[in-house]
Amino acid sequence: MSSPSPFSTPRWKYEVFLSFRGEDTRRGFTDHLYAALKRKGILTFRDDEELERGKSISPELLKAIEESRFAIVVFSRNYAFSTWCLDELAKIVRCMRETGLTVWPVFYDVDPSNVRKQTGTFGEAFSEHENRFTENIKKVEIWRDALREVTNLSGWHLQDRHESEFIQHIVEEMIEKLSSKSSSITKNFIGVESMVAKLIPSYLGFKNNVCMIGIYGMGGIGKTTLARVVYDKFHSRFEGSSFIANIREDSKKHGLHRLQQQLLADILEDKNIDIRNVYEGVDMIKKRICHRKVLLVIDDVNQLDQLEKLAGEQDWFGLGSWIIITTRDEHVLVQHGVLKRYKPELLNNDDASKLFCLKAFKMEQPKEGYVQLSHKVVEYSNGLPLALVTLGSFLVGRTTDEWKSALDGFKKTKGEIFDVLKISYDGLEEMWKEIFLDIACFFRGWKKDSVIQILENCGFDARIGISVLLEKSLLTINNYEALGMHDLLIEMGEKIIRLESGGKLGKQSRLWLVEDLLCVLENDMASEAIQAIALYQNENFKFEEFEEFLEVFSKMSNLRLLIIDGWRIPNALNFAPNNLKCLLYQGYFLKCLPSCFQPKELVHLNLCLSRCEYLWEGVKRLGKLKFIDLSFSKNLIRTPDFSEVPRLVQLKVVCCPNLVEIHPSIGQLSRLKWLELRDCQSLTNLPSMSVEMKSLMAIRLTSCSKISSLPKFTGIMKSLSELYMNWTAIEKLAPSSIKYLTALTLFDLSNCRNLEFLPCNMDNLRSLEKLIIFGCSRLKLLPSIPSTVRYINAQCCYSIKPSPALVKLSSSLQPYSQWFPYNESSGEVAFTILYLYLQGLLCRKTVNETSTKRKEDEGESITEFHIIIHGFEIPSWITHQSVGNSTSIELPSNWCNCKWMGFAICASVSTRKWKTIGVRARVIALGDTPQNNYVSKLLFGTMSCEDSIWLLYLSRDNWFATVGNGECSQIKVIFETDDSVPHVWECGVSLVYEQDVDEFSQTNAQCLIEKLRRN
User: Fold this and answer.
1) CA 193, CA 201: separation in Å to the nearest integer?
2) Which range is the signal sequence, renumbered to this chain (predicted)?
């Protein structure tokens, strides 16, 4: 229910990735280096798991490398003995080439020449690897190349230096590099570079003092933007940092003790800090931070008390700390004794024109025909960044006549910023205006989808409305999908509401301040004009002040939205008007809703974090209720009777540990679409789901750890397309449990650790496209799967055996994820399944006529195959291999005889950040003359694993269907991806003949499979 300030997130998740040999340096040098980096606020990834030698490198670790700006590789005496470390190093080098990862080697107690030349202990290690990996010597060469490449980079050598000095030197250089890289964040803020240049010199003489500096000026001039740029650029130089935004607004809603809590949590990196009052917070800040060099930004201060409770004195902070304060009121800075004060200037004409044109024309200059008009708009904006952005967004795509009309409106406003900004508001349709006002008053910092759901339940077309507001720069959205709005626009919205009410609180359409609501109640001023109320907990008011005036609520006959956050008002809902559509009461503290609470128009009910044991007794008639959320209600024992809630669309009950009963009436709800019962760990079963549930689209029972069977379905579930049973106690699936799931497209059984068997016949799942059995470590066999399946994730299913069912699937899966733990034999797994598939083709050939005749008689035949397996080594049986994305093979004179079956084609593909990419394979036949050149049809695959082997089989029939009987002497294979980054590292091609398949018997295949399972 809180309204956090939205910030944009950096491109990288980590600033530094540490690679090291644990047994050499984990508890010594690397631990000290990690601590030093952390003290400077450098976000560093260090793997804390001491995994068994030989265990494959985890996906999380690979992902962390991809999400890091820098990698520091600590070479120590025994580094090369660890295949884990060498795999990690190979990945680092790959990211260095592919994503621009910067790598710095550190030579700790080892001679750099021994590492580079692989002599000494490094030579001993590689001798062991060559003996161990005799069948995969290419892997060893990759490791050798990675070592050579990294050791040729500039880095650090400890030699005879003191470790503490050595570490300090590394950290200082890292800070310099991070600062230079972060300079790119200013490129989207026109004019901010010059502001930073003027602001920062104020600090340079204060390295041994605590420096407070204030940034002040009118709203919209760029104070917060400037503070944010400085914070992003320099925070890594400090031992801790915090950016506390929207002080003026958030202190009213949540109290200063919450902001003190945020300050300490950020700087100390401790999310468990709990502050009960501001005096306790002051004492804790003084004691916990006084010896730390910190960077603290306190944004949008409007009262001296706020500064006194967050940064009361300089001696609260360690020497060298920077405290940056932004405010509209310079007098607050004077009162607090802030000597260094900076007032950002309005943008000069050139910068103002660039900023406006970027919004209006998506370039820095005006379009032809708009030059003079643009100059006039810039003139009226008077260099104020917010006005330039807002007006540019308002005018984008409009005709010159519309621009002239807008300019006429500017003249009438005489340059008042409120009136200039209101032009964009006045251009909105009435519904978009209502949405704007609701967001301005209630929903800043809320997730977009949650706001859309609430506003739609209030009767607004919110999805389109929010898009319109974003287009017009009246609203922003960050990388977390949280909505934001500039404080000037918030003030404009609030002012519009006050003007429309004629200055009478009881006539306002929205009430968002506790004191305003209390005034309305105490003075009996409520009217039908009030549409929405937000009552956030405020330490300056007590619930008793409301108790005797609650009857006044009944006069708010048009109240549609009521938000209550944390207030313990016993009778708060007794007088709620019948027309209430949305109730959001976080922390509701009674056992159930009062019996007199009968809002006939209620559509949306959210009682998260409540103390409810049950929602209501017996039956409650709520004929329009669509949404119920009881998540995190720890006392909840059972759900209510839904018999008189016929329009319920979504029920969300997440993390309710004492929930044991779902009322049977839920199985009769014909309009229910989404049923989410995640993390209800006492729940053992669900009631029967009947055919009446014709709208049900998704059931999520994730982490209901006592549920051991699927819900009982009594008839065909026509709409149920997604079923999530992951992390449950299911041991087996009976055929009867799935026979009615004919519309299911996604079935998630991941991490069902007790699951051993799937039904032998899954044909009833005739719409199934995705089957996720990731982490089902006891699952022994994958049965025949419907032909509709396009994706299976069987990663970490260590007990699954390759079978004909897998082979049958391979021609249709996209992608086909990991079947075995990653090891050096992954390519051989693909080889096994391919040859089992080819044996099946040969068996059919002896029974049927030729493939071409069979295709005519039976329609489409299964003559293509592809499989994707986690790994990066092309198997040795691919005869012609090349580095890069293309390879070719010279064809012998008799290559195309009657025993030739087709081509086996293979590629080693690496994706970035676990991104899904499309890969295409093109096979080209090259003849002696241009007339004899032919190109096969494109073959497609989709990769989502990070390192993958893609193995394809192009059949003889499909080849001839494309190239005819043309003669050719060479075959060339080219792999392409759907983005510009090179992903294909190696590829290869082989001719496949019947005798090859004959030699590879089923017995040999099983021997290989058993060998793989033992590995």
Assistant:
1) 13
2) none
Average confidence (pLDDT) over 395-424: 76
Beta bridge partners of 948: 870, 909
Domain at 845-1014, CATH from 2.60.120, 2.60.40, 1.10.1330, 2.30.110: 2.60.120
Closest CA to 961 of 932, 939, 937: 937
Other C-beta atoms lying within 10 Å of the C-beta of residue 107: 21
Contacts of 969 (CB under 8 A, 6+ apart): 890, 891, 926, 927, 928
Taking alpha carbons only, the member of 385, 443, 421 closest to residue 495 is 421
In this predicted structure, the answer to whether residue 839 has a pLDDT above a threshold of 70 is no
**β pairing state of 476-477 and 483-484:** antiparallel
Residue 403's CB is within 10 A of a number of other CB atoms, namely 19
Q: Are residues 698 and 677 in contact, defined by beta-carbon separation less than 8 angstroms?
A: no
d(CA 540, CA 556): 25
Measuring CA to CA, which residue among 533, 490, 491 is closest to residue 513?
Answer: 533
In CATH terms, the fold of domain 189-342 is Rossmann fold (3.40.50)
Q: What is the pTM of this model?
A: 0.59
Reported as a pLDDT band with limits 50, 70 and 90, residue 1003 is very low
Among 902, 911, 977, which Cα is nearest to 938's?
Answer: 977
> Are 788 and 767 contacting, i.e. CB atoms less than 8 angstroms apart?
yes
Residue 575's Cβ-side half-sphere holds a number of Cα atoms within 13 Å equal to 17
pLDDT value of position 182: 46
Name every residue whose Cβ is closer than 8 Å to that of residue 351 and which is 6 or more positions away in sequence.
190, 191, 383
Is the separation of the CB atoms in 386 and 486 below 8 Å? yes
pLDDT score of 700? 95
The enclosing H or E element of 232 equals helix 223-234
3-class secondary-structure state, position 906: strand
Does the structure show a pLDDT above 50 at 344?
A: yes
Amino acid letter, residue 682: S
Q: What are phi and psi of 572, to 5 degrees?
A: -60, -30
Q: Are 926 and 934 in contact (CB under 8 A)?
A: no
CB 44 within 8 A of CB 14: yes
Please state, in angstroms and as integers, the Cα–Cα distance from residue 500 to each residue in 78, 412, 425, 444, 504, following that order: 75, 20, 14, 22, 9
CATH architecture of the domain 14-179 equals 3-Layer(aba) Sandwich (3.40)
Helices (H), 716-872: 735-738, 804-809, 826-847, 851-858
Q: How many CB atoms lie within 10 A of CB 201?
A: 9
Q: What stretches of 879-959 adopt beta strand conformation (E)?
A: 880-883, 886-890, 900-910, 917-926, 934-935, 939-943, 947-955
- pLDDT for res 253: 75
- Give the CA distances from residue 954 to residues 113, 534, 865, 957, 975, in Å, rounded to whole numbers and listed in that order: 48, 64, 7, 8, 14
Residue keyed to tokens 């990288």: 12
pLDDT at residue 94 in the model = 84
Q: Could you tell me which residues come within 8 angstroms of residue 887 by beta carbon, excluding any fewer than 6 positions away?
A: 880, 881, 972, 973, 987, 988, 989
- CB within 8 A of 464, min separation 6: which ones? none
**Active-site residue numbers?**
88
Average pLDDT over residues 266-279: 85
Q: Which residues pair with 990 in a beta bridge?
A: 904
Q: Which helix (H) or strand (E) holds 880?
A: strand 880-883
Are residues 638 and 591 in contact, defined by beta-carbon separation less than 8 angstroms? no
- What is the token pair recorded at 153? 């980079």
Q: Residue 41: pLDDT above 80? A: no
The continuous run of DSSP H or E covering 939 comes out as strand 939-943
pLDDT score at 825:
45
760 token code pair: 């032998």
Please report, for residues 192, 270, 366, 515, 567, the alpha-carbon distance to residue 546 in angstroms, rounded to integers and kept in the order given.
47, 36, 56, 11, 10
Q: 127-158: per-residue pLDDT in tens?
A: 999 888 887 788 888 898 889 888 877 778 88
Question: For 882, how many CA atoms within 13 A lie in the half-sphere containing its CB?
Answer: 13
E strand or H helix that includes residue 74: strand 68-75
